Amino acid sequence: MKIGFDNKKYVKIQSKKIKERFKLFDKLYLEVGGKLFDDSHAARILPGFKNDVKISMFQELKDDLEIIFCINAKDIEKNKTREEYGITYDNEIIKLINKSKNMGFSVNSVVITLYNNQISVDKFIKKLNRNGIKTYIHTFTKGYPTDVDTIVSEEGYGKNPYIETTKPLILVNAPGPGSGKLATCLSQIYHENKNGVNAGYAKFETFPVWNLPLKHPVNLAYEAATADLKDRNMIDPFHLEKYGTVAVNYNRDIETFPILKNILNKVSGKDIYYSPTDMGVNMVGFCITNNAVVEEASKKEIVRRYYIEKVNYKMGLADEDTFKKIHLLMNELNIDENYLDIVKASLDKKEKEKGLPVIALKINRKIITGKQTSLLSPAGAVILNAIKYLSKIPDDIYLLSPSILEPMLKLKKDLGTGERLTLQEVLTALSISSVTNPLAQKAISCIKKINGVDAHATYIVTGSDKKALKDLKINLTCENEFIEEWGNYEKKILIILIVAIIIGCTIFIVINNQKTVSSNFIFDEEYTIETDDQFKTLKNDGGSHYNRKYIIDLKKQTVSKKEDYYKGFEGEKYKDKELYKKNLTKSEIKELKKIIKEIINDFEEDTINPSDTSTYYTLSCKSYDEIKIYKTNIIDRIEKIVKNK
Prior knowledge:
This protein has 3 domains: 7-296, dip2346 domain like (dip2346 fold like), CATH 3.10.630; 340-478, Domain of unknown function (DUF1846), C-terminal subdomain (Cytidine Deaminase, domain 2); 526-642, no CATH class. Helices cover 42% and strands 18% of the residues. Helix 1 packs across helix 3 (53-59).
């Protein structure tokens, strides 16, 4: 690989710049844009950039810093995914915390921004608390973005809980953009200055690169990467006016700077920064050693983003405008889809193989392809071919033993999990074969040499093959067509769907003909009714909450009341604590049965369609795993019947 970036120089001058900014304040909140770990975008467009360089730089400062992670509640609710690894933002937060702690960094807490009583977010908060991770909730800031007097007041930032920090440098990071990092920093600075602490803000963001031309491929690659956010690179007018120097920034920072400047002035009583570029500490532009190499890598990344967003559009995950915007960027650079030479190679191979799905990848200057066979998926085939090439094993030599393959294929067939081996299964079989086959051992030793190569598929790669290719750190792009589109496989699926729809319609008709639970309704022996609405955010404790449970045993004619209690940062205090247990009278049993019938009636008839679903209870029993109860008076009625006298 040709190198275009001096990583050692970057570590030296970037560390120095951060330390200089650090010394201006008693406490610095440093917003870290992009990826704190594994910045693969930067590594792809700046050949020579180490993807873990950011976190490595902070290693020497780890005794003086702590980390706050932010996540937008809306991203949790819609299961937003990090493209590189195919994992959701909430799982990425857990991963980031574990990585940080394993490297010896102090993780302060997680801030949930734009919280609005989302049920899925409440569950995530419980998960964090039960794992000993502090959480803070930030709601929408009153007055934002124009009413500075309200924002910088007890009604604005003052309503957010103060996050207690003990170190002079606080890194504020997130799994992706739009997570509320800036708002969290400003909220903390408000509280710190109110408490007499000289706290400041700075931004450590790699892209766009302020001292490269506006239309430089590196900066256009940033626009491609954030096309879904509608980001645009612009000349920083504030920097130009103040210093007479051209600097590149992006629209969101430029548009919000006047407000941000006023907020910082109101908080600290003075102007600290005169332009959005002033806020940054980015030195990456001074470390490019071969502009031609960097430009070529950036152009390739733009084409990759184009294919990724075309697939996202086909999958319903992005708007048409996103990939069309990237195509306009390609036009500006006078490049097209075939700038990645593996694209044409894969399509030519597909045509030669009469439409079979194909993946092509490039190692150095060698194009290697793999097609779908009766035995292997295209991903499994191309990786086998690639490691054969790297280990100089002839094509006609079989690496996988039939004694291993036959039982694997039989098991897949018996389980109905497919007729071909996936890439992960191929690698597993190869590992087993390597115990007795020296050639297999030789081949598998070359697997890491595939890291970072470009690959293109003639179909949308999904499932375990997609994950395995990402785990191998292969830069995969795909045509936006599903495999065997409307071939035999899809016909089978279509038949299954039609049968499922017919069965579903039949069940729907039967259920709707049963308008109420009949008088001959057979009750289960035991019912558990549990509250899930007792979440109480107490002052600065990370969110304490109680759960009540009523266990109604109709066979034994008893009821017991239990309670769970979790106290914020301290975690679980007790679980299933029995508050009382009592025998039921006939009249009490009659009233409870009436309530249970009513709950199940509402569930089966779907008569409840609340506008606010943030508060609900649940009923579970042998016949139903979980029924959500939205009538807020249910618990009060039960409590009135069964209360311990």
